[in-house]
From TrEMBL:
UniProt protein name: ribose-phosphate diphosphokinase
Keywords: ATP-binding, Kinase, Magnesium, Metal-binding, Nucleotide biosynthesis, Nucleotide-binding, Transferase
PANTHER family: RIBOSE-PHOSPHATE DIPHOSPHOKINASE, RIBOSE-PHOSPHATE DIPHOSPHOKINASE FAMILY MEMBER
Pathway(s) this gene product operates in, as recorded in its UniProt entry: Metabolic intermediate biosynthesis; 5-phospho-alpha-D-ribose 1-diphosphate biosynthesis; 5-phospho-alpha-D-ribose 1-diphosphate from D-ribose 5-phosphate (route I): step 1/1
Record's subunit section: Homodimer. The active form is probably a hexamer composed of 3 homodimers.
Enzyme Commission code(s) on record: 2.7.6.1
Gene3D superfamilies: 3.40.50.2020
Taxonomic lineage of the native organism: Eukaryota, Metazoa, Ecdysozoa, Nematoda, Chromadorea
Domain annotation Ribose-phosphate pyrophosphokinase N-terminal: ranges: 71-187
Transmembrane domains' residue ranges: none
Function: Catalyzes the synthesis of phosphoribosylpyrophosphate (PRPP) that is essential for nucleotide synthesis.
Domain of life, source organism: Eukaryota
Enzyme class: transferase
Length: 385
């Protein structure tokens, strides 16, 4: 195997190629080499007969302890715990970077190891100090790009400013488009995100965007954690989430309902109307984001008034800003289930009703497949370990 790799490397050196072509051709050879190494190691270590015929990528990497070459994974300040979990699943160490502030509060980034010719993945979620974290991500991307990395991908579990995706009133900005422009200008070659508030945000970019879905993980939670889910009704708290809710209801083969809301202003709801029957059933509210939680708490009250036995809330991104935690503690929910696209450790301490689904496996497998040039569509219907 080493002999084969040396021959391929010498063959590249004999050709006159531009630095970019050289980088890409070396990467193609490394991918071939990794696939051959996977095959040889797999059959060498395959002992038991109780393993499935096909094994998911990150699980195979973890079991065989295979190191992925030519890849660096950095984490921003927003979600260090998620970065550590992703790297653990990929059998990688978190790459070194110093993230500090100058005395005047400007962001100071120093990449602590060589990224020349490497695929770089930078994990930064749109949470906490959102504006500072965006700037930190942009500087990290640019620092890696001008340090001669082969490709730079931004892994953004919760995309910032995603709710400002259209001009809904006079002189309103389309901030999601501005963020897309900034990421492209900084040097990002690829974006990996999860459950965009509006899927058309992908069209704001001139670079590839993989919008992953937490739906397989949510379905798994419902089947395993909610008793008598077969008698439940999946409810959308607004008309915009109807497509998401009908998809889940179809896969579970259960009924769905819809709550129509009229807003006075942002984060304030004037009137709610329930469309559908929840009497004597378990109601499962599903939404992409829980921010101040005023809407879903009012929706829970509406569902209980309509005769629901129990009410659960399942949201992908748990922002929980302002009075959210107090509202949830006083709400009629059995549980509020979110993913860890945003850190939830402190929120779970302050609100016992919050439960968290780990999506690090989905992001780790997306990174592995992207690095090896494989399709990520498998993740739209499966939950990696």
């Amino acid at each position: 195997m080493i002999y084969l790799r040396n021959i391929l490397t010498i063959n590249i050196q004999e050709k006159e190629l531009s630095p970019k072509e050289n980088c890409l051709q070396r990467k193609e050879i490394v991918i071939v080499f990794v696939h051959l190494e996977f095959i040889m190691t797999y059959f060498k270590n395959r002992r038991s007969t109780d393993r499935p015929e096909e094994e998911e990528g990150v699980e195979r990497i973890r079991r065989l302890k295979i190191k992925m070459p030519n890849i660096k994974v950095f984490g921003g300040s927003s979600h260090k715990g998620l970065t550590q979990k992703i790297c653990s699943k990929l059998q990688l160490d978190v790459s070194k970077a110093s993230l500090k502030k100058f005395a005047n509060k400007e962001t100071n980034v120093e990449i602590g190891e060589s990224v020349r010719g490497e695929d770089v993945y930078i994990i930064q979620s749109g949470s906490g100090e959102v504006n500072d974290n965006i700037m930190e991500l942009l500087i990290m991307i640019n620092a890696c790009k001008i340090a001669s990395s082969c490709r730079v991908a931004a892994v953004i579990p919760c995309f910032p400013y995603a709710r400002q995706d259209k001009k809904d009133k006079s002189r309103a900005p389309i901030s999601a488009k501005l963020i897309a422009n900034m990421l492209s200008v900084s040097g990002a070659d690829h974006i990996i995100t999860m459950d965009l508030h509006a899927s058309q945000i992908q069209g704001f970019f001139d670079i590839p965007v993989d919008n992953l879905y937490a739906e397989p993980a949510l379905l798994e939670y419902i089947r395993l954690k909610i008793p008598n889910w077969q008698e439940a009704v999946v409810v959308s708290p607004d008309a915009g989430g109807a497509k998401r809710v009908t998809s889940i209801a179809d896969k579970l083969n259960i009924d769905f309902a819809l709550i129509h809301k009229e807003r006075k202003r942002a984060n304030e709801v004037e009137k709610m109307t329930l469309v559908g029957n929840v009497e004597g059933k378990i109601a499962i509210l599903v939404d992409d984001m829980a921010d101040t939680c005023g809407t879903i708490c009012l929706a829970a009250d509406k569902l209980v008034e309509a005769g629901a036995n129990k009410v659960y809330a399942i949201c992908v991104h748990g922002v929980f800003s302002g009075p959210a935690l107090q509202r949830l503690n006083n709400s009629k929910f059995e549980a509020i289930v979110v993913t860890n696209t945003i850190p939830q450790e402190e929120n779970m301490k302050l609100c016992p009703k919050i439960q968290c689904i780990d999506i690090s496996g989905i992001l780790a497998e997306a990174i592995r497949r992207t690095h090896n040039g494989e399709s990520v569509s498998y993740l739209f219907s499966h939950v990696p370990m």
